[in-house]
Amino acid sequence: MANKEMEVVKGVNLERYMGRWYEIASFPSRFQPKNGMNTRATYTLREDGTVNVLNETWNDGKRGYIEGSAYKADPNSDEAKLKVKFYVPPFLPIIPVVGDYWVLYLDDDYHHALIGQPTRKYLWILCREPHLDDEIYNQLVQRARDQGYDVSKLQKTPQSDSPPEGDEGPKDTKGIWWFKSILGK
Fold first, then answer.
1. Cα–Cα distance between 32 and 180 in angstroms, integer?
2. What is the pTM of this model?
3. What residue ranges do the domains of the chain occupy?
4. CA distances from 52 to 20, 44, 94, 113, 154 (A)
5. Beta strands in the chain (DSSP E)
6. Smallest Cα–Cα separation from 112: which of 131, 99, 94?
7. Alpha-carbon distance 84 to 155, whole Å?
8. How far is 169 from 111, CA to CA, in rounded Å?
9. What CATH fold (topology level) applies to the domain 14-182?
10. What is the pLDDT of residues 39-75, one digit of tens each?
11. CB 23 within 8 A of CB 41
């Protein structure tokens, strides 16, 4: 099943996709803190058609974040295959790291989404709200399974009932959480 070509959403309206998305579940990643909570991404469309990406997570009461950009992998395709680019280390942007961001499912209301990439090493379930109905969650997990993902690796992301806004609370230095996560902390 893993060799099957993944089905990717076509015709995504990027303007509608912009805004805040909460991470409901994901495959663990060495680029995120192990105890992160209230993890979310905020997307903002730039004048040049690229997307500003702000990924945030809270760990031990501190906000960690990294900013990057996203752009269509093939400007002539209507498939929702994007490239995301971050610089590492984030606090001293030297080396660009580019990854795939494929929209595998998006509901008609742009309320919840399934995001993956061709190696199937990364998977995210996103929602416009910090909590997602169990029935919809299970449907998204099944969609991921149907796309060849080993969903046993999927872990729910803790989200509070009232997630922090902006950069309230103690602020971690930009990208320090990324560095700590590489060291396994």
1. 9
2. 0.87
3. 14-182
4. 12, 5, 18, 18, 26
5. 19-26, 37-45, 51-59, 62-72, 81-88, 95-106, 112-116, 123-127, 155-156
6. 131
7. 22
8. 28
9. Lipocalin (2.40.128)
10. 999 999 999 999 999 999 998 888 888 899 999 999 9
11. yes
